[in-house]
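Audit log entry. Action: structure prediction of a protein-small molecule complex. Ligand: magnesium ion. The ligand was supplied as SMILES and no pocket hint was given, so placement is left entirely to the predictor. Protonation state taken as written. Sequence taken verbatim from the request; no trimming, no tag removal. Recorded inputs:
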Amino acid sequence: MTLQVFDLSAIRSGQAILHPTSLSIELGTRIGLVGSSGSGKSTLGHAIVDALRAQNKRVAHVPQSPDEALDPLRSFKFHWHEAERALDLAHDVSKQRTLFSALKIEDADLRKRPWSWSRGMQQRFVIAMALIGTPDLIVLDEPTSALDPIVAAKTMELLRDHLADKDVAMLLITHDLGLATQHVDRLIVLDKGKVVEDASTHGILVAPKSPAAKSLSTHRSWLSLPC
Ligand SMILES: Nc1ncnc2c1ncn2[C@@H]1O[C@H](COP(=O)(O)OP(=O)(O)OP(=O)(O)O)[C@@H](O)[C@H]1O
Ligand SMILES: [Mg+2]
């Protein structure tokens, strides 16, 4: 199955921040949505989620910070049950175990409230929650930018391993081309609310065509920069 959205656009304060954009996403593919800050990545991500949900597709969204997804006054157990209820699913202990084990939170105490877990564990819980209903697409908006680099890398690796044999498509929103290249096969480059390039990750790395892709590519090797 292919997920398709047509002519998504957004106007804020009289300004077009997303120009009409149509996309096709094959199930099981891993796509990066990259662009500089303010290029419209989150706007497009939300528009895709809304458009696909309107088509009754199963779409999960993981925000940048677990604070956006978790109520500080509610336990993890409450959040999990709420997520199941929202999708009309009965409580499924074996699914919960599978996801907790995949995201390495199997030994965590679910009676706790969010602040008592590390940020990395919180974000892994949010990702596990997003996968409860086995979505057609999971959209992750800068999912690891609030985490330290080691925890961030590990989180993405756990997600990659879990999705490896599944038909779930992934849209990874990031301004970090280095992170994207490790996890996606296709890159969509946004600049000023327009898709300026949409090609294989390898193709864009080897021969970026647009100024935006060239700029991202030039600045991707943080490790090689002199400190
Ligand atoms: N409510 C709003 N009113 C006016 N401008 C807005 C509004 N929401 C977003 N914008 C502008 O739209 C543009 C795109 O915003 P968006 O958050 O989608 O960018 P982004 O690529 O996700 O940026 P970042 O990497 O910083 O998260 C930005 O220039 C932003 O300032
Ligand atoms: Mg954003």
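Audit: result stored. Residues 222-227 have pLDDT under 50 and may be disordered. The chain is about 35% helix and 25% strand.
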